[in-house]
Specification:
The protein is of the alpha/beta class. The chain has helices at about 10-15, 30, 45-50, 55-60, 75, 85-100, 105-115, 150-155, 160-175, 190-195, 200-215, 225-235, 245-255, 285-290, 330-340, 350-365, 375-380; strands spanning about 1-5, 5, 145-150, 180, 215-220, 240-245, 265-270, 295-300, 345, 370-375. The strands form three sheets. The protein has a four-stranded parallel sheet with strand order 4-3-5-6. Strands 8-7-9-10 form a four-stranded parallel sheet, sandwiched between helices. It has a two-stranded antiparallel sheet with strand order 1-2. The longest helix is centred in the middle third of the chain and has 16 residues, at about 200-215. The protein is globular and about 65 Å long.
Amino acid sequence: MMRGMIMITETDSFTEKYDLLGCIQCGRCTGGCPVTVRADLNVRRFVYDAYNEEKLDELARLAEIWDCTTCGTCAVRCPKGLKPLEVLLALRTMVVESGKVEPTVRDALQSVLLEGNPWEKPRATRCDWMEGLDVKMAEPGVFVENLFFVCCTIAYDPQLQVIARNMVKLLNILDLDYGFIGTDETCCGSEVRTLGEEGLFEMLVEDNTELLNSFEAKRIVTLSPHCMDAFKIYYPDLNSEVIHYTQLFDELAKEGETPWKGELQKKVVYHDPCYLGKQGDIYDEPRRVLKNIPGVELLEFERCRERSLCCEGGGGKMWVESHSQKERLAETRIKDARALGADIVAAACPFCLLTLEDALKGLGFEEEMRVAEITTLLGELVED
């Protein structure tokens, strides 16, 4: 059904699909939503108003639907087990189908379609980060124990390529059986889905499933929690187990495979990425990896694990500008780390690393502390 310029579904099916009648309007979703402190987003109101067919078009036009970071706090807090954020994503889909999206969103989606990544970079340059490294490449039909999926953001962002480069260094020192996909690797679709392009996401799932299943892999190891979430939740036909790299290193530590040299001698506080923690229920593995580093004193944020504060990097926010002038959540996170006396804020997600590093620089705390991805910390403790 069309209303104005926005495509909507029949209300009954919309209500049933998102179980809107199951909502008891307790307000725990909005009360826990980290974005509400700096934006007008009211998740409870959206769920309530979505009951009414006449309001779907109006709701889809509200700018607040793009404030959601898809952190999953609303789902964690919901006593009825609902996922309010899915209502917001459905509204985004209506906007995408109408063609009324911001140019930055349009360009990102078009880039995924044409080049396999949202950063408007040529597919042919996807593996430029490998230059100078001895990287083992996976071959279709040939067994490999660990098939690594790099992530578009890590592959193309010069600030993040160090994550993949450190990973290769660690894998070679550990002499693990591994392989990387190469230029055939294509966006997992996590951000495509959260931006509301369901049709493109479905195409990516189909194409990537065929690609990944062509490798005889025991498991697919992702460098980004967002890729892990996409594969585990939305790729039902994958033949391989999907894990995050921190799970691999936790497993290796239990087996005594830790070639660390020297000590770090730093106070480290770990920031739980929403897609690894709230969405993936992976809390202990990254902490054990950090604790296993000689000399590390592991600190904890007051808001940690399922209560962790979102950095605002997910949910397509890399392509949607925030108009709020209030303090960014990443800045709050850095201030909290400083109050703890941390030397290092450890991240395990490329988006978290970008937002936290930007906040650190913006606050001028670079001389007091640093933000580092876990692979960077591990890479500093091995010999070339």
